[in-house]
Amino acid sequence: MSHGDTSLDSADLSTLTDRQQAWFTTTRGPVSVRRYARYSDFVRAAVRSGNGRDRAALLTFHPGGYPLAPAWLAAVAEAAPETADHRSPSASMVSVRLLARMTPDHRNGIPRQSDGSVGWSIPSASARIWPDGRIMLRGSTGTEFAGRLEGAQWDHWKVAAVADAGLRLLCAPEARHLTSTGQPSGWYRPSDRGQIGEGR
C-alpha cells in the first residue's frame, strides 16, 4: 500500500500489516492509519485539521468496521476545524443532539447522563458523545466507530455532522433519510386563531 498519495476512498484497511502506518489523502487534508499487532486486531486513524498539521481526531476501528471506515474518516476530515489544540471541544452536548439531523422527535426531552454525555438511537444504530470529545457509534450488527475529537474549535455543528455521517453508515436502510422535525420555516399562527385567518 503506497503512502501519501492514495485516496482514502479506495483504502482497504485490511491489507495493512502489523504496525504498518499509511497516509491517505482526502478532499480536505491527510489521514494517517496505523495497524496494531495481530493479537490486538485494530487500526487507529489520525485525522488532521484543515491546516494539515494539527491532529483533530484520533479514531479506532476493529475489523468489522474496516469496510465503512474510509467513508466515515472522510466525513470527519470534512468537518474538522482549521486548527486544533489539546483542549476539549467547545460544543454544548445538548446542542449537538438538537442539531443532529438523524435523531428522533424531541418532544420527550433530551436524556443527559450524569457524566454530561448525550445519546440517541435510530433504527439499528446509536450514538453517544461526551463533553471531552469522546464519541461512540454502534450498529446493531456489532460494528463500532469510536474515538476522540481534539481541539476547542470542534463546535456543536461540526460534532453533530460527524455523528450524523457515522449513523448514516451504520443504520438500517429505512432510517437513512431520517431527519429531525420541528416547526416549518416561515410558519406563524394567525392572530385570529379559531377563525378564518391569514396564517401560512
What's the short version?
The protein has helices at about 70-80, 95-100, 155-170; strands spanning about 5, 20-25, 30-35, 45-50, 55-60, 120, 125-130, 135-140, 145-150. It has about 200 residues and is an alpha+beta fold.
Describe the fold and architecture:
This protein is α+β, with helices and mostly antiparallel strands and 200 residues long. 16% of the residues lie in helices and 24% in strands. The chain contains 3 helices and 9 strands; from the N terminus they run βββββααββββα. It has a 9-stranded mixed β-sheet, covered by helices on one side. A hairpin with a 7-residue loop joins strand 3 and strand 4. Helix 1 runs antiparallel to helix 3 and helix 2 packs across helix 3. The longest helix has 15 residues. It is globular. It starts with 5 loop residues before the first strand and ends in a 30-residue tail after the last helix. 36% of the residues are buried. The C terminus is likely disordered.
